Amino acid sequence: MVRKLKTSRRNFVVGSLAAGSAFISTRKAISSNTDDKAITEMQSWNSELGDGVDANPYGYPSEYEKHVIRRNVPWLTADPTSSVNFTPLHELDGTITPNGLCFERHHGGVAIIDPKKYRFMINGLVDQNTVFDLSDLSRFPRINKLYFLECAANSGMEWRGAQLNGCQFTHGMIHNVLYTGILLKDILKEVGLKNSAKWILAEGADSSAMTRSIPIEKAMDDCLIAFKMNGESLRPEQGYPVRLVVPGWEGNMWVKWIRRIEVGDKPWHHREETSKYTDLFSNGKARRFTWEMDAKSVITNPSPQAPLSHRKGPTVITGVAWSGRGKIDKVDVSLDGGINWLEARLSGPADSKSMHRFYLEFNWDGKPLLLQSRALDDTGYVQPTKDQLRSVRGENSIYHNNGIQTWAVDSNGIAENVEVS
Amino acid sequence: MLKCLSSFFILISLFVFYSFAYSQPLGLGRPATYNEVSSWDIDIRPDGKGLPVGSGSVIIGEELYTDNCASCHGDFGEGIDRWPELAGGFDTLDSEDPVKTVGSYWPYLSTVWDYVHRAMPFGNAQSLSNDEVYSITAYIMYLNDLVDEDFELSNLNFEEVRLPNEQNFYQDNREDLENVIYSKRCMKDCKKEAIITKRAVVLDVTPEEEDVSDNSNSNEDDIVKTVSLDAKLIKDGEKVFKKCKACHRIGLNAKNGTGPHLNNIFGRVAGQLEDYKKYSKNIKKMGQEGLIWNTETLTSFIENPKKYITGTKMNFKGIKKSDELEALIEYLSATTIIN
Predict the structure, then answer these.
(1) Is the fold of B42-168 the same as that of B220-338?
(2) pLDDT of residue B242
(3) For the residues A330-340, what does the mean pLDDT come to?
(4) Which residue has the higher pLDDT, B9 or A214?
């Protein structure tokens, strides 16, 4: 009985291999002398019953995926309540970031808000100062939009040179989520804007009472008041029950746990738009209101935390690209540190101001590589090198580092974060 | 024909419903009351809009700052550990190591008032009165050598104050300055060579990948287990403990922060943790005289820290609600049992 089961299973595996692809020849070479015990031996999962339904009323990833987690860099900040962790980009594929892996940045810890006590207020230069509860908000027309959120400080530790060995740490302050929400302009129209309305101030309900000034043109364009991410309620760490979505603009403006919008005629120049999120040049002067996120890309595999698992032969390079100004038109990949470039293939659902996924398949000769990727957006902007950025801005900037990333891959497939001439 | 007609009616009624649903205003929400707006509308602008009537002095500010802010930001605003610096850094902005503080970098004083009022002290935000914020703001100016020690700040002289770096900010000019340069897409022989100039492994600052094999939820504060204690109360207490988290940690790998870690706090002698170097004289003294942490002593201390131990460095106003206090003590005792 058992034996019969084994044979029939083996037949099945061979059959499916034959129906497979160009990889067959390499496979044969490895497994022809000895049988693969993963196939010839009975596995427990093949005979014993597994958990029933409801073992996890809210499901988790496989227990073999426990290493796929957000991580932080403890030396960066004084305390985890005023800190950041990073999305494990090197473990993900496609274009959507799973909710539990979206990086977190808090300025006073995660606010836990009772939805029954949630209120959203609009006041200032409007016809009527108004309070909404969640039920009111749900009665506005809803839309669904895919957007990336990138912290302006993403890659900020890399301004002066290669520092952190892993794309989770160099590029992981980004996530890409399908939001369900209502257009902010619908709510602003509802309360009636005065003619003098030029700016809004968005304010959070957390213990940092986060605030940012946003010009009215953006507020009346594509900003969302969002309550769902990838279909389910926002996670607490992403602003449950309601957050602001400011497509294409720096993540800090996407105020989480949003409780109020004030309409005014001038910007507020609050702490997060003066002390922080301004770009210091080497002459001591600083740029402010640098809201848009420039086109950027990174190869996620291979990368330092995700070496190539094989030697020479068919090899897939993949990564992500995005632009705060629109769609990604093309992504180019270089294998030789930027001397020559090949156009990569884009795949997967992607919108304007969302992440795009790219792939480049090639036959690796097993020699060391200097991998780079370069994004081009539909405004004609070409992702610059880090040297280009530094030649304009100097080395004292923190934010808006969208320079081209280089991974040096050695003949064993191990990748390292480097910069090249 | 009849069928056609009826679908025509359905169409009409659909259309009516649709346009009704989308014509604004929808009449959603309700007017905010005066008190509601003034409770939440606390923002201040550089032109003084939003600033409440009030005043405060450097002298009073010094005391308030020492009690509420110095434990993180340092006596002189120099910043302890990695907590932010608030003073100094003049003439460093164009150097290799710029130090951005209120004095060296911030363009407007209103930002200090607004931020301290809305977000500080960290973990006990919006606990300061308007006059206290005026005093502390005046004192931060004093720490930055911007005013003398007899200075008083009020809503009346606020707009006269200018910070030194106000003029050194300009609008985003990436469009004209940079985007025009970043427009070439070279595909072949774009440069002569590519030689490695910088390497991350030289620095070796990347965090090690920790072992997550046995517990995906390895948060240090999550190890509380119930041992014949009131589980609900402990859960409530864990929530109350958030008020302490800015300064104290509990758990397997808990370290000292602004305050000592609180593992095994039940039965511990006050002020005697060896690896915590920042105790006040008085807490050490009371420990030597026999103060041991138990339900009674913890309750009295946490209810009003400064009253129970005069001169304590624990800058916390205390927990007055008895149910919160009871839950917190239960939580502290639960963590003692398992540690």
Answers:
(1) yes
(2) 83
(3) 98
(4) A214
Residues of chain A found within 8 Å of residue B184, distances taken between Cβ atoms: 382
Residue ranges per domain, chain B?
42-168, 220-338
Contact A67 B209 (CB under 8 A): yes
- Determine, for residues B184 and A419 on separate chains, whether the beta-carbon distance falls below 8 Å: no
> Which of A235, A267, A287 marks a domain boundary?
A287
pLDDT tops 80 at residue A147: yes
- Mutate which of A90, A169, A200, A418 to disrupt the B interface (most B C-beta within 10 Å)? A418
Place domain B42-168 in its CATH homologous superfamily.
Cytochrome c-like domain (1.10.760.10)
Please state, in angstroms and rounded to a whole number, the distance separating the CA atoms of residues B134 and B157.
11
Q: Which residues of A touch B168 (CB under 8 A)?
A: 284-286
Name residue, tokens 């659902």.
Answer: A349
Q: Which residue, among B101, B77, B78, B81, has the nearest Cα to B89 in the 3D structure?
A: B101
Does A278 share its domain with A341? no
Instruction: List CB contacts (< 8 A) between B216 and chain A.
Output: 60, 66, 69
Same domain, A337 and A260: no
Residue A410 lies in a domain: yes
At residue B174, the pLDDT reads: 95
Task: From chain A, pick out residues whose CB is under 8 angstroms from the CB of B96.
Answer: 395-396
B220-338 CATH choice from 1.10.760.10, 3.40.50.150, 4.10.640.10, 1.10.238.10: 1.10.760.10
Contact pairs from chain A to chain B, CB under 8 Å: 264
Residue in A208, A282, A289 closest to B94 by CB: A282
ipTM: 0.89
Residues A374 and A403 in one domain: yes
- Smallest CA–CA distance, residue A400 to chain B, in Å, is 11
Say if residue A255 is exposed, middle or buried (CB neighbours under 10 Å; 0-12, 13-18, 19+): buried
CB contact under 8 A, A278 and B36: no
Q: Among A43, A44, A42, which residue's Cα sits nearest to residue A3?
A: A42
Mean of the per-residue pLDDT values of chain A: 92
Facing A418 at nearest CB: one of B25, B189, B199: B199
Shortest CA distance to B118 belongs to which of B59, B35, B41, B32?
Answer: B41
> Has residue A293 got a pLDDT over 80?
yes
Contact state of A190 with B26 under an 8 Å Cβ cutoff: yes
Q: Residue A9 falls within a domain, yes or no? A: no
Look at residue B14 and tell me whether its pLDDT is greater than 70.
Answer: no
Phi and psi at A24, nearest 5°, equal -55, -45
The CATH number given to whatever domain includes residue A274 is 3.90.420.10
pLDDT in tens, A163-195: 899 999 999 999 999 999 999 999 999 999 999
User: In terms of residue numbers, what domain contains A243?
Assistant: 85-287
Is residue A407 located within the same domain as residue A279?
no
Whether residue A360 sits in one domain with residue A280: no
User: B30: helix, coil or strand?
Assistant: strand
> pLDDT tens digits, residue range A120-137?
999 999 999 999 999 999
pLDDT at residue B290, rounded to an integer? 87
**pLDDT > 60? residue A21:** no
Per-residue pLDDT at A13: 38
Considering A258, A287, A316, which residue would you say is the last residue of a domain?
A287
**Same-domain status, A191 and A136:** yes
pLDDT(A342) > 50? yes
pTM, 2 dp:
0.79
Q: What is the mean pLDDT of residues A260-272?
A: 98
